[in-house]
Every structure is written in C-alpha cells, then in structure tokens.
Amino acid sequence: MKKILVIAALTMFSFANAQKGSILVMGSIDYNSQKTEYNPGDSKQDYISFSPKVGYQFHENWTAGIEGGISSLKYKNNDFLQQKTNTFSVGGFIRYTKTLNQTFSFYTDLGLGFQNQKNESDLQTGGRFKETADGFYTGITPGIFINVHKGFGLNFNIGGLRYGTLNFDDHVGDLKTFNFTLGKAFSVGVSKNF
C-alpha cells in the first residue's frame, strides 16, 4: 500500500525530462543476508553489490555510456566451509528511451562487457582453494523511469535477459549462464541527468 501511495504522489507532479546533450549518472545497490539455523550447526550468507552507470544522451531517445559492477558473496557454515566470491565487471551500454509523459519514460538497456570472478574456499579440514575466472556478459534490461525532480528519478525494472561466460584459470571447466528473469526479478535504481 505504501508503494502505491508513493507512486501516486510522484504522478501528481510534472517535471522536465532529460534533454539531448545531457549526462546520465545512475546506480543501484543490492544487499541480501540469509541465515539458516539447523542441528548441528548454522550457516550464513551475505551478498552485496553496487552497479553504477554513466552515459551521454546523444539523441532525444538514445544514450550511450559505460557501466560497471562489483559484488561480494560470503558464505559460512560453522561446521564445514567458509567461502568468498568477488565479482567485477566493466563494459558499455546503449539505452533507448521512449518518453510517455513528463513524469514517466520507458527504457531498454543493452549492455556488453568483461567480467572477472575470484573464489576462495577454506575447509575446516585444512584445505584451501583459490580460483580465478574471466569472461564476458551481455544483457537486455527493460525498465520504467519516474522523473521525480529536474532529471532526478527512480528506475524500476522487473528482470531481463542475460548471458555470460567465465573461463577458469585452472582449466577445470568453463561456466556459461543464461538468465531469463522477466517478471521474476525486481530492482530499483536512482539516476540523475545533468
């Protein structure tokens, strides 16, 4: 109910949309923590990520720029395992925006870039493992932009389409992922046009 009231309040205002020649700065932060209690021990998982973007609006409907991402996943099982995974990505994106009115715009981002992952595992039995992987990613993400005040706004998306590869240094194997999360994921970001 609170979300509906906030969205309704935002729609009562009219604001200027981004103009050709403006700079887009945006980003999102994601945090997730999960704890499982069971006998004989507990496990805990913490995940945090930050995904910034900077782009230049070279046309009324088109923006191009760079995007990045950094994330950390920590998992701990008191009886057996501690694991840490750090992921870094950098690439470019192009965005097509269709303005619906002075408050709402629909956009679709197409991104492509490089990604790197480092995994560290410590076993209670004394074993320690490290592995590194490099690869690429590409993805399409549709979303809605709500212009709150003079180009400052909120970005909402409900998933998208993403493909990525990771090639591990130890040649044990390669990881290829395909994610179709349209309607299954939800994220909110903040952006500002200068």
What does this molecule look like?
The structure is a single chain. This protein has 194 residues and is mainly beta. 5% of the residues lie in helices and 70% in strands. The protein has one helix and ten strands; from the N terminus they run αββββββββββ. It has an eight-stranded antiparallel β-barrel. β4 and β5 form a beta hairpin. The longest helix has 10 residues. The chain is elongated and about 60 Å long. The two termini are 32 Å apart. The N terminus is likely disordered.
Descriptors for this entry?
about 190 residues, mainly beta, 1 helix
Structure at a glance:
With 194 residues, the chain is mainly beta. It has one helix at 2-11; strands spanning 23-37, 42-57, 62-77, 81-99, 104-123, 128-149, 152-157, 161-168, 174-180, 187-193. The chain has 1 helix and 10 strands; from the N terminus they run αββββββββββ.
Q: List the helices and strands in order.
A: HEEEEEEEEEE
Helix content: under 10%
What share of residues are in beta strands?
A: over 45%
List low-confidence stretches: 1-18
Number of helices: 1
- Radius of gyration from the alpha-carbon trace, in angstroms: 20 Å
Structural class: mainly beta
Record field, number of beta strands:
10
